[in-house]
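User: I want to check something. If I give you two sequences, will you return the structure for each one separately, not as a complex?

Assistant: Yes, each is folded on its own. Here is the first sequence with its structure:
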Amino acid sequence: MSLDTQGGIPPSPGRMNVDFEERVDFARLRAYRLARAREALDASELGAVLLFDINNIRYVSATMIGEWARDKVARYALLTRGGEPIVWDFGSAARHHQLHSPWIRPENSRAGMLGLRGAVAPDAGLIARAVTEIQSELAAAGVASMPLGVDIAETPMLLELLKAGVEVRDAQQVMLDARLIKSADEIALLSTAAAMVDGVYQDIAEVLKPGIRENEIVALANKRLYEMGSDDVEAINAVSGERCNPHPHNFSDRLIRPGDQAYFDIIQSFNGYRTCYYRTFAVGRSTPAQRDAYTRAREWIDSAIDVVKPGTTTDQIARLWPEAKDFGFPSEMAAFGLQFGHGLGLGLHERPIISRLNSLDHPIELREGMVFALETYCPATDGQSAARIEEEVVVTSSGCSVLTLFPAEELFVTNRY
């Protein structure tokens, strides 16, 4: 599967693999991700990385036990220089991986338990036991004298590592470096995830009429996404009417009314690869103020898309967007996330992060194979409506390709009167 789309749209070939087309090669995907992680580790000062972030664990080990694990800090993995991933899993999940994940050495799929965010107190000794085991693996790999990178961890784990004399450093930077450039297989999965949301927006456009509630739209989107094969609907924003300005980043039970402006964000994943995909609608009819806000938001996002190519720096994109004070906010911190770009992959917020808050003084250069979302927001002069648009893009050798294809060139009026 070639990464070069020659200006076209990366493939979203379907949710199954077949024998008559080349689609996602999961063995190749696993090998690519582990190689990237090893390369980033070797380029660092670390001897190993100890990972609790489930996206990092999945990246190096291709194991996952569901969305349940996201906030439990219940699984962890160790990758040493020159070593194979070791995964400590929740109880019987370790046995399942021994049976069904042959790319992980059977002896490296282990049961582990640290305390479930303090529910089992540290003085029970589980964390101390885990640190002793980790130190043994570091010694066996010959890296016990080198710093150990940790991405996220509970405070008792960090304290126990320090007590044991382990020099702890930040592993998240190493892992984000590894995850920066997507392979053709990753891009195909991201494209498929976006295609699923394309379809959900068609469903939303057909039912978005007076009398339906925001939460009903959220329920419909969840149902359709899981029917289509989503493995995690992380969040759906559904915002309408007077709730549009300022953006509350949630949904409610508000009834949709004639003439409302409404915008939605669908955050979900397919085989772990995420979407962040806003669209704005007017219900039945639109006003000049709503159309003007939409036009401005579209111009801001198009100006950013136009400069996306290898070699562009993120400050060049951020400078194309209005300053916070120009759309009603006192500072860039207060307006953060409204004129915004963020990397997409196994995580919702990967590199690059693009905004006036951070990019003007700390720009990074775009490279072929980066995938990120660009988001703009414009409040309307009526004081309550607002437009929100988001496009996901892939940086190609010649510019970029857009993954998000539901119509957004102009304000979409649903069930027009």
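And separately, the second sequence with its own structure:
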Amino acid sequence: MRFIKIVLVIVVFFVLYFAYHFSSNAPVTTSEIFRDDEAAQAQRSVDQFIKELDADKTSYVARGAHSKAHACVKAFFEINEDIQAELQHGIFRQPGVTFKSWIRFSNGKGGMKGNYDTNKDAHGMAVKLFNIYANGLEKNAADSETQEFLMHDSPVFFVANVNDYNQFLESEDKILYFVEGINPFKWHLRELIHALNTLKPPPVSPLKTQYFSNTAYKLGPHNIKFSARSCSLQEEQSSTENSDPDFLQKEMVKKLSSGDGCFDFMVQLQDPTKYMPIEDPSIEWRESDSPFISLAKIKIPSQVFNSPEQREFCENLSFSPWNSLDVHRPIGELNRIRKEVYQASSKYRHKKNKAEVPTNLDW
């Protein structure tokens, strides 16, 4: 039966391919749209996520996603001098200011078993800015102590909404989820294409690729997505042997032992006259409709980052898109669900590991 379904996927693929980019019916609005069942969907996500954390645990409970870190490094987040006045909000309010940060690079897979750098996977970059009020930035009641930007190396998320995400999590066979039933026009082919594109070969180095927010955020009055693009995106292939299951970490050790890393941090403004929905992160906001605008430079100085103490510190850090200033807050239903899931996941794994989230972030 499974073989027949796979054959049917191939047959209908070409019929549906040209409708691929137009198969979402998400409305384009400048405001968020709230589901009537959002609280129930959030609890559903939390329950399933904790269940998977429990299933993957050994003597140690790793993160439910992006479990394996390649590195946790010190970095400077330098705000550009020439930011347009209409984009000067939050941490971008004062051009030329520099923030200290921690950056965690990781594989996307949940659980540590079989989590090899040679596998096809998503790859993450999580940035945590701290001491953000030291430069005169005013703290409001809704603001976090840190400003964090979470990204992975695909411009879209593989599901369109939280109900689809929950169905995927609850599916015992993740492949058959996309082709459930005998009617191919009810299959999740667009989501399947995104999933296959997300599970890509590893980059040459975590320092030489581009990462994307997928979901939408605020920048003052604007709706945006953001991205971090390596300053050395076009460099030659790594000389590290790629059969090594930890070659991405070793590539970073090699690079940062003798040189620096660098990323351009950019934002993409929503144009509501284009097909740029907030509530469907599986729709790419095309650069032809709204090009990325550079707002900051991320500079990773040469350093030794793989000591046991720093690795333990990194493992105990907790990242969330909701660790944010209100002017940079996440928007959209999947982001709202992430708030509940990330909080529950962090609380669960720290309790099970008898660990505390570090409060002293300075270096």
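Because they were folded independently, the notes below concern the second chain alone. Residues 2-352 form a domain with the Catalase HpII,  Chain A, domain 1 fold (CATH 2.40.180.10). Residues 235-240 have pLDDT under 50 and may be disordered.
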